[in-house]
Amino acid sequence: MKIAIIRGAYLNQYEMQNYQSLVSRKHVLTAFSSLKPIHQNYNFPLIKLKSPTDLPDFPYKMPILNRLCFGDAMYLFGLEKQLSGFDIAHVAETYFHFTQQALNAKKAGYVKKVVSSCSETIAFNNQGIWPRKQFKQKAIKEVDVFHCWTNKAKECLLKEGCDPKKIKVLYYGVDLKKFKPIKRFRQSKIVKLLFVGRLVKEKGIYDLVKVFVKLIKNYHKIILTIIGDGREKDPLINLVNRVGLNKFVSFKQVNYKAMPLEYQKSDIFILLSKPTKYWEEYFGMVLVEAMACGLPIVSCLAGAIPEVVNNAGFLVNPGDWQQAYTYTKKLILDSSLRRKIGKRGRRRVELNFNSEKFAQNIEKLYLNCLL
Q: Taking the CB of the first residue and of the last residue of the chain, which one, N or C, has fewer CB atoms within 10 A?
């Protein structure tokens, strides 16, 4: 098969690791992105096309561009003709402009079938800008097969009127040969807590600081590593310095290839996401990465997190940092419990979030789509 993976500015290694083994299965895989995707290095060709998203950052960039670009700025100039001769155009979401472009390419006879990956878990979200509602309705009607990241995403599509026969739930996974636990010959007396994600309020980073402030008052042999970037980074660093935690909290940005080691050096993973009116955690790849490396999870009953984590950690109501503190303290004090839950998480990832198994399943989905 000749397969086009279209992600525009959002093309990334977290997701693409699930498709890389299709190349060894003798399929021709090509990715299409904007000029400035999140990541650029893959084991298959990458074609970069100009997009409004390539413009330099400015305040309220995406909301403004979405309105100026007839509903969505994720437009790739010349994409339709670039898809000529492909069997599958695999896009993302129903409201992105490049999804409409792929559907237009199919109508013009350039590509045979269009598959869309959908992660959105809030029904009728992302359609307040004209003509996104029309975009979504067209996609729901004309996309050949929907790949949903979670069952919660499937429920969202069903509420929006999608034919259930067109939906297949396939969990994304990680490379289990890279994301794996390591054997520690000497047990460190310092318990290492880890957060990975965007540094924005909805990721619960200020609740995380509250938890750590209370922990450090009673347990001095703990440290917290925060990996990521975002608009709250500077305010967060200032807060950490102001409350005197700078000796115990470190901030880092890490290349994705080095991420397995960051998990392997840690003991507990914490993600206290807080839903908003228009967003909730739709998957949480960092949770899968942490579980694959044998870390117990402390997270929230929000979005698709319970579906992903299940019994591989402790989940609290969003905003309940006191309960998050209680569970984290429990894990700090009991290394055997950390190992027990960590092994449970690793097994869960092996069964449900294996990138190689995903590649096998998406291959079947493509083949069935072309029948």
A: C
Quick check: 267 and 336 in contact, CB under 8 A? no
- Which residue type is seen at 30? T
**By mean pLDDT, which of 53-57, 170-174, 185-189, 324-328 is the weakest?**
185-189
Contact yes or no for 113/86 (Cβ under 8 A): no
Read off φ and ψ for residue 148, nearest 5 degrees.
Answer: -95, 135
Q: For the segment 56-72, what is each residue's pLDDT rounded down to a tens digit? A: 999 999 999 999 998 99
Instruction: Name residue, tokens 């500077």.
Output: 234
User: pLDDT for 350-369, tens place per residue?
Assistant: 999 999 999 999 999 999 99
Whether this model's pTM surpasses 0.70: yes
| Domains in the chain, CATH or no CATH each | 2-173+354-370 (3.40.50.2000), 191-352 (3.40.50.2000)
- Angle between helix 97-107 and helix 132-142 axes, rounded to 10 deg: 40
The dihedrals phi and psi of 25, each to the nearest 5 degrees, come to -90, 15
Alpha helices, DSSP H, located in 314-371? 321-333, 335-352, 355-370
